[in-house]
Amino acid sequence: MAPNRSNSMDRPGSGNCSIMEVGSGILALSFAIKESGFGLGIVLSVAVAILTWFALYILIISGKKINVYKYAILCEATMGRFGFYLLNSVIFFQTAGACITYMIVIGDTIPVVLDILGFEVSRRWIIFVSSLLFILPLLFYRSIGSLARVSMVSVMTLPPILFAVAVRGMYYAPEHKRSYDFVGKNVFPAIGVMAFAMLSTQTAFLNFTTMAQPTRKAWGQATGIAVSLSWLISFVFAIIGFVSFGEDVQPNIFNSFPLTDGLINFGRGLLGFSMFLTFPQAFYPARAALHKVLGHEDNHIIPTDNEHFYTTLALFFPILVCGVFIADLGLLYQLIGGFCSTFLAYIIPGACYFLIFWRKDPSSLRRLSKPPSSSDSLESEAGGAGEHGRESRYEDGDVDSLENIEEDGNNDEDEEERILKQKLAQDKKSELGLEEEGRNIARQHRPTLTNDSATASTPILDRHQLNYGSTGASEYSSSDLQSTNYATISRRESAGERKTELWLDVGAGILLVFGVFVMIISTTITLKKMAGYM
């Protein structure tokens, strides 16, 4: 039996991923615009960006509601073990598929550069040998945080790659025919490619818990900026590629250029190099998902050294074989994007939201967190302690639910007692604050008897005014004031909550319907195409 190994990888401060990462999917966006039609492609790109932002937003709101800050645990809390395995399976195929696309891009770029340098090597041998030499050694670290500098170098290669395409692309524009029809011939698979390029929900909680001020407002602003910048960079690049090559644009835009262009070949070399460095960013989530499905990792344990080593090899070599023998990047983008990306980006966040906020009995959610210790209870009474530390760090002015989900289902009575204590502590604070406010008001209205004239000219407050805020029994006691105040606050919160819930409900519904619709149609069309090639 494996020892109890603490898993702290998902605690606040452990993450270093960006909210939006640009991977190999950006290379296919020009192809996606051609497939969907120029006009509709731009409209759909904006819609996909907005839905991506909204999915990130409601995912965090759903997690905060039940005090869960991990994607897999959220799915298990809402859908049971089925949701846990469903999410990890989809993440596995999404990220493993992304790894295969990186290898295909390596096969499309590195052989061209080596041929220019006088080394003629086949595409398959380049993928096989370079993956063993340059990718495999990067995969044995336990945390992607160990490769932070490698990831930074990979990101730094993006600007010169985009610059090379933007500068040289327009030079070849007169040689190619293009159509600016509003609607294209392959709309739904194109949406899958866009979803593949914009996907980032699998890192939402990791990024949220590492924010300096992880509030809903800050999260909404941060993700809004990140998604907007990602859309701007990606689709300016995509439009330039489409305008340059039109109907001849390829899923890997570098394949649209001739092999004799020096600046483009420099870009090809940088792109292939960046794929070596970017590969671990997709491989690590795939391995983590596999560990969870196999039972090697959960909320409290991490894999042993042997499990980590053998799982890494068992996952890497099938990906390597697929990368060596699969060459159609476009169909792979459409299949992964149409099924996995839409599932992760739209369907699961929307489903989790409705299963949490529309559930009649919230206590029916699975209790998944570690039961709090006595010290946790004290922290909870003082400031609110959550799964990841002090809950006050996650507050943003509103009153979150007191229904903190716990792991052990046999501790219902203890949990109810803890919640009751926390509620009483909050009521006590409110009562003391209201009493102090009442005393201050009484002091302000108390007459000052300095002399007879002052006494005669000063109006005497009546009994009701003098007793306002006093602790004794009176018509205007602090308990009456507290009741009135609670009723006012309750009415305001109810009105605000109804407005917010209506907006979120409509958005989550659109997210869910859009995701299911696109996934079914896109996957069906792509599978028919793949069957036609066989």
From TrEMBL:
Amino acid composition bias (Low complexity), ranges on this chain: 370-382
Biased amino acid composition, Basic and acidic residues: 387-396, 429-440
Region (Disordered): 368-417, 429-460
Domain Amino acid transporter transmembrane, chain residue ranges per copy: 20-361
Superkingdom, taxonomy of origin: Eukaryota
Biased composition (Polar residues): 447-458
Biased composition (Acidic residues): 397-417
Annotated membrane topology: Multi-pass membrane protein
Localization (cell): Membrane
Keywords from the named record: Amino-acid transport, Membrane, Transmembrane, Transmembrane helix, Transport
Pfam families: Aa_trans (PF01490)
Main localisation: membrane
Stretches that traverse the bilayer: 39-61, 82-105, 125-141, 148-167, 187-210, 222-246, 266-286, 307-326, 332-358, 502-525
GO CC annotations on file: membrane
Family that this chain belongs to: Belongs to the amino acid/polyamine transporter 2 family.
Name assigned to this protein: Amino acid transporter transmembrane domain-containing protein
